[in-house]
Amino acid sequence: MDQIVFCDIDGCLVEGKHAPLNMAGLAQVRHLVGQLAAQDIGFCLATGRPQPYAEAMGQVLGLRSPFICENGAYVFDPQKDKPILWVKNSKRAQLGKLRKLLVEANYTLEMGNEGSLSISWDGMRDMTVEDIADHRQTMAEHYRAFGFKWTNSSTSIDILVKGFSKRTAASFLLKHFKLKPENAYAIGDSENDRKILDYVEVPMCPANATTEIKARCAMVASKPHVAGVIELLSGVLSAVTEDATS
């Protein structure tokens, strides 16, 4: 492998939680991933979702390589069926205490999380990503005693242990594949993608990305969600093909 593309799921490959999957679009992504692999370019999921959801998306796309779960709380290797979890038990116990408080406050907690929390609530889907970010800031202040890091996407608020992010997990995988950030692309759309986008050589985003994320990206697709990912991957493939023939 000479290069790698990290790609978010929610807001990129899919529109968000509970939204129908664009199976035709995902089939095109799967085809492009195969074409990229033929050029020695890997494709790695980098998501806030827990392992079962990410693994299912990997199966849809025909992926067998390790992927980033829960915004960098851990990496999962599907070939070994093994997680690499960095969050200590003491921090996981603290997450459990916060989980109980959030349930009591009538937030919905995503199931399956091992090293982070992800919450939503009734009416969230009708809010703008800016409004969600404002709500996240209010919650972070209210629960600041726990000392966690709060971030958000267009579909959830994510609570993370400080020191871990998609960037830290991407750094681990680049070392695993003997690559450098200069060999990497990343596709993201919201706040919890910011660190990985700032880390790689070529940050990219679909048209539905936030204004702040678009300002950080070298390539911004003209289309949203999976159509935008297809556009971006096609651009990467075209650039590599041109370099090889020039």
- N-to-C SSE string, H for helix and E for strand: EHEHEEEHEEHEEHEHEHEH
Roughly what percent helix?
40-55%
Give the CATH H-level superfamily of the largest domain: HAD superfamily/HAD-like
Q: For the terminal residues, how far apart are their CA atoms?
A: 21 Å
Radius of gyration: 17 Å
Which spans have pLDDT < 50 for at least 5 consecutive residues?
none
Biggest β-sheet, characterized? 5 strands, parallel
Portion of residues in beta strands equals: 15-25%
| Chain oligomer state | single chain
Supply the helix-strand structural class. Answer: alpha/beta
CATH topology of the largest domain: Rossmann fold
Total number of domains = 2
Beta strand count: 12
Spatial order of the strands forming the largest sheet: 2-1-10-11-12
Morphology call: globular
From the coordinates shown, what is the CATH architecture of the largest domain? 3-Layer(aba) Sandwich
Q: Averaged pLDDT, please?
A: 94
Number of helices: 8
